[in-house]
Design goal:
The chain is mainly alpha-helical and 878 residues long. Among the domains are: 141 residues, no CATH class; 132 residues, no CATH class; 149 residues, no CATH class. 58% of the residues lie in helices and 1% in strands. It is built from 28 helices and 6 strands. A hairpin with a 2-residue loop joins strand 5 and strand 6. Helix 18 runs antiparallel to helix 21, helix 23 packs antiparallel against helix 24 and helix 25 packs parallel to helix 27. The longest helix is centred in the last third of the chain and has 73 residues. The two termini are 76 Å apart. The relative contact order is 0.03.
Length: 878
Amino acid sequence: MAKRKNKRKSADYVHSKKESVKSKNVMNPFEIHVNKEKLRVLGKKQKNDRGVPGISRAKAIQKRKHTLLKEYKGLHKSNKFMDKRIGEKNYIMTNEDKSMARFTAVRVKAHNKKSIFNLADDEVLTHKGQTLSEIEKFEDPRSDDESLDDENVSGNLDQQFVADAHFGGGVLKNTGKEGAKTHKELIDQLIAESKKRKAEKQKTKEATLELTEKLDSEWKDLLPIVNPSKKVEEEVNKSKVDDYDKVMRELKFEARGTVSDRLKTEDEIVKEEKEKLEKLEQERVERMRGDLKQSISKPNHRSADDLEDDFVYESDPEYMLSYNKEGETNVQIDAEINGVIITQNNESEVEVSQKNSGDRSDEDEEPEIDSEDNLSDLKDGDSESESDIEASIATGKNELENRDIKNEEVLKVNNDRRSDIKEDKSLQDKIKDDLLKRKEVMEQARKELPYTFTLPESYESLQKTFENQSSSHQNVIIERMIKCNHPSLAEGNKENLGLLFAYLLQYVNDLFEDVTDAESIKNSFEIFSALIPQIYDLAQLNPENAHHSVLEVMKEKQGEYRKKPKEHPGYEILAFLKLVSSLFPTSDFRHQIVTPCFVFIEQMLTKCKVKCKRDISYGLFLSTLILEYTVISKRYLPAVIIFLTGILHMAVPKSKPKLIKILPPFKATASDLVLLENYSLGSFKSLHLDSKDLVNDDISEEYKVRVLYVALKLLEEFYNNLKELSSSIEIFNPVLRYLDMIPTCNYPREIKTCLEDLTNTLRNGKVNKKLNYIIMAAERPKALRLYEPKIEEVYDGKRYKKQSKVKAERDKMLHKLKKETKGALREIRRDKAFLGRIKINERIQSDKERKDKVKRLYAEAAMQQSELNSLDRKRKKK
């Protein structure tokens, strides 16, 4: 067996191959051309001192082959492939942009090709309630061959006529008559029979269609009677639609916006809202006046084919017109029936009494109604009407006696009038019911809030508007004021809304100054929370005015606080501080309003004494505000941690010999929050503080539990907010010490769990925190002192003209133009030389091919001649 050779290449072979590759990249010294200079300048860098003309020439020729040669070969040829697709030569457009541009071009092209007489695409033509697409189905159940089977109805030529006309007849046929029919007579007979058969065919077709339509209509009427049970079974077997399917169908058939739907501007939206409120206010005023047109429901839509088969005449006397024996109608004078007001110049005595008992006073017809109707006129309507009628009868008697009228005629008239009174009692009851209904609508309209409001001219008018209004109603009032007086509707509205913002600040201030008990403070906070959204909207409409107004208020409150720095100020400070966090950004490093508020809160937490329940709740409210202010900026305020630590200190039991140190304003002996009763098995609905806790009452055991829970939760939130600081362990180290001192035996399970979690969190943070020793920064090494180099100007032998900057720039551009022109001419010459060489080569190639063809023809001719010569020699031999 032969030994297999090792295919692995030696290291020497690989090394030699690498050297050969490197040698290819090395320039051939014989191809390098050295450009000599006339004047050699020392130290001057030369860019073009060496060149490689062979390689440069080869590159230029290769470039011309790819550009100029291709253009030359495609010259005078029409079979080029030009890619004219939209966006194909635009490298910036993406594939999606290209497809959209092409789709748009196709749609525009199709749109331009449409005729101007074509109908619009969105118009649907109907006939008898059906669209043309539904009608034009061409579903005729009859076959086209039915008419061909009946020879009498068919319009074709019969067999006898064809036999006579084409296959005989004429003089040779025995017709039984004298002479034979001519060709003209036959044609006339053919035309008459054909018309007759076509008329019969059309008549039969119309009769068939009428019968078919009649059968279809009768069948549709019989369908519900034929199979009612099947429909019920289908409804029973039909499964209930799932909620998911309902939502899916709603989304499927939801109206989609088109490109033509324009979004409304902010001014248009505001204008529409104002018009809507004005319309609602007009309807409310009409209801207050007793106009019940709005309450009458609109009739349902009726089509043009409605024959009013379901019309029923009303038996109500208000709509049924009737007359009594004296020819008087039962319709009330000045009543409105179907939009028409009934009037009469000469009112009868009975109608006058009905009008006096049923009409409203002039004050009720005014839009502003202050007096209320007690319906006393409706209660005594019957007695008044009878008494009026009896009085009218008495006066009639006196007049008749004075005029010497007979007693019999007088008695007859009186009896007729008494019979009319009985007949009109039902009408009076109907009028009473209508008036009661109208009265209810009017009272309901009076209780409704107006839909349009004018801006208050003074603070007193705003107070009058808010008087006896709930928090939700006050919110709606301010909202409607803003909508009806938006800055885009009139020029002076922006300044007036600024005044309204200032009035609202004053209203909030007065709202919390009048707080006396727990119910009033709760009501004040409810109204304040309802007004905050509208105050925010006003601040956005006029930011400069809002900024200035709030700043002035805070300056004023700060000045009042400085008079008594050791006592907590009023509750209005809490409202304004909460309002600042809603109106302005609290995460800025420096803000003209928020930053002074930080200082103000820190002063109150540091200097105000903590003695009673109100002080503790007040401080916890301020701590919550600080957490809200710093949740984004992660800012650290020492006063908050000190206050919360003091709350924990007050919950630690103390003995006289051993006192625990604490920072002011807390005292070392304070133990007001120590829990004395056992709540370990108790349950609380809510452990959070309420607005009622701000009232100064006695500290209860339940309140101690809730205060400790709130303090622990705030400390937990502050630790999560500040744990990224390098000094977080030192900040919360006192908190951990006080947490260990609080006895948890009497507290509920929620408090124990919260306290243990906070303690474990602080300890774990202390263990995991690594302290880095402070090291002084290393000093940079000083550099050695060096002498500054002496720079001298070197004369390069060129002289430059002293000229202006513009002229120098122009000369520079002319020089560049001249240089580029020379380069362009040189390239044109080289291109012409390249094309000349290509043409010469083509000419030489074509000449060579022509010579080869000529030689081939001569050779073929010589072979043919030799064959002819050989044939001639053979003939001669024979």
